[in-house]
Amino acid sequence: MPDRARIAHLLRRATFGPTAEEVDAAERAGYDVTVSQLLRPTGSDSGAPKPPVFAAIAELGKNASRADKQKANQQRRQQVTVAIDWWLDRMVAAEHQLTEKMVFFWHGHWATSAQKVKAAPLMLGQLQTFREHGRGDFAAFTTRMIRDPALIIWLDGQKNTVKAPNENLARELMELFTLGIGNYAEADVKAGARALTGFTVDRRAGTVKFVARRHDRGAKTILGHTAAFDADQFAELVATQPAAAGFLPQRLWFRFASGEPMTDEVLGRLIGAGRDVDDLLRALFTDPGFDDTRGQLVKQPVEWAVGAMRQLGIRPARLTDQQRKQLVSGLNGLDQVPLRPPSVGGWPAGAAWLTTSSLQARLRLAELFAGGAAAPVLDRLRAAPTAGRPDALARLLVVDGWTDRTRKVLADAAGKPERLIQLGLVSPEYTIH
Amino acid sequence: MDMLTRRKFLVASGVVGAGALAAGATAYTLADILDTAESGDRPRDAGTLVVVTLYGGNDGLNTVVPYADASYQDARPDIAYDAGEVLRLDDSTGLNPALKGFQRLFTEGRLAVVRGVGYPKPDRSHFRSMDIWQTADPVRPGTTGWLGRWLDTAGGDPRLAVSFEPALPPLLAGATSAGAAVPTNVRRGAKGVTGLGLPAAGEPPLQARAARCFADLDSIEAMITGVRDAQPTDPDADEGDDPATGTGGRAELGAQLDLVAQCVEAGVATRAFSVSLGGFDTHADEKQLQEILLAQVDKAVTAFVDRMAGRPVTVAVYSEFGRRVRANASDGTDHGTASNVFVLGSGLRGGLHGEQPSLTDLDDGDLKYTVDFRDVYAGLLADVLATDPEQVLGGWKGKLSLTGS
Fold it and tell me: Which residues form the signal peptide (chain B) (predicted)?
């Protein structure tokens, strides 16, 4: 594979969508240096907007009026909307793209929805935890996550007490976050739930408190080990299981490399990389098997939209309110709105995104993006001779090449740069990567 | 997990679920479905099943109301309906006032109300309970839905099992096949993109799949526009009484059922349809919101059943669980267990079925189920889809027959 194609592939997967200039720079730096820069960007990310600060919502007493409750609910919804808008803008603006993309990856992994958590500050707090702890040792990260207030509320952890155990968090911790189905038994769920008892959440302060009298201090047998497990010991135990060593690489592979399962050789190499997340990412991006995964992932709707906005010079923060609503509503039509995963299992992938229904939503969003493309981007397309515009578009959108079919459609529209962009964005070559 | 809305529900884990979905043809169009009408391979008088999923856990006690039971009034004084409010079915049971069409269908023998439907060891998580209902496995819900497994046994053609939702519900995902997800919200304006749907030599399979969506787009547009234009205008459609619930479009269930009706009238091969409405997760200030939602169900389903009168079409309406008997502190109810299943259509045994669970002999505040939901599925599989239920339901032997003799 030519170097440029190899590097473009890397950047398409490790970022939300590279610009042509980013590919140029990476090509000059070389593949391995680019991987290192993605993993260890220098300096702080000056481009990334700071998180919004939210006004406290008044605590309502038991006798609060319906109107007061409705008002508080409306404030909460409004704050979540602001948080979603902010995050989309940050995904576009951030220079440390892999950092940002990993936050999104973890959001799909520990899939927590604002629809139940309802508190934007808690959702942003969880994203911050992803940012700060999601790149090192996975067991340490897991230990942080089981005391994340948003995750606890999402999975009813605050209702899990020695008197009234709630298995929700313990089950999903093993099933979806660390081990996978088949690597634990129902008895482990029950015992694990006991280990996780005792946490309460102060929604207003956004803090988690451990209340000793709500905790089950008895001995538990989990995954064949018997001890008076507490939450940290339980988290450490599951995250260091042999099954976990294969589970996380599989999830990373599935989102960054291919919808097809990796070969045993690749899996062996990734397991060999250990459980430090950055080590795993480096191993994945430099694995010989990674090169062969081009065309094996459907861009997730958020990846598709954010990448398009990056390449077209569109900042969500500078859109009108109406356009921003169109953006989120378009993502909703594609079934992927940040902070609103459909379930604790996260978003679907692959062919599930490829329906005629989602194509229509893509067409509408692409129209919005094409209409909002920055003037220099349009100028560059216009500067190319009409016959060369499909190639100029391929460079702009970092598509390796068009099939004859698509090239013909693009050539027919080459006289209208905005239409050309819309067609490029919805093309099969751009939808898949 | 709270507040699951319609179509916000897919096979649980991206890792384990993708295989089943990948097997399905999500790129089928209405045109493909309608084309099957011409093949003529649908058995004469073959039944059609329409499954209506109400996401969010509809409060069954305020839907089919045991109004004469003092314990009902005592448990939820602020949100209970009294004898004067309900639409009476008999001396102890009445329907929610929003279900006027259902009451008429009941008197006409076209509505069967199955009470106390649930499963052992009820799970109060929306996510898992809906998994259980859709997979029909209360012990360990896997990644195949009960209609998906039926599809496997029926030959696996995706056009036999259709959903009008953007993503395919697990209900229609089989082990070796999956139903088709066909869009309803078609609009004009995508002209000129058909060329992107031509096959290209050597392109990756997913890219080919993405291209195929284009190939279908123009034909769906023409088809659905034609269908819409042929519809008589509903004079009540723009009364301006849309509730701002934000939990699912008002017209969506009606629009989905309109398309089902079109397909049935055209004689398509499809035997099972999945449609849904979200927004039933009403933990607070429940009464008004639930009435609004039930009115949508009533209007859409009643119109559909009337339109399908005389045809072998059976509708089944369910939700992932009912609610607790006792109201909570915020004029709502929390997640519960057993609830009602409505079965509607011509030629069924209308009336009340199943035993109303006791409101005093409770399981930790929740109703004890009296009818296993698999009994209901078994009846639908045998009587509507003419299939051996045991094969689809993992050897389940119970059966509640509501249709046929």
Answer: 1-27
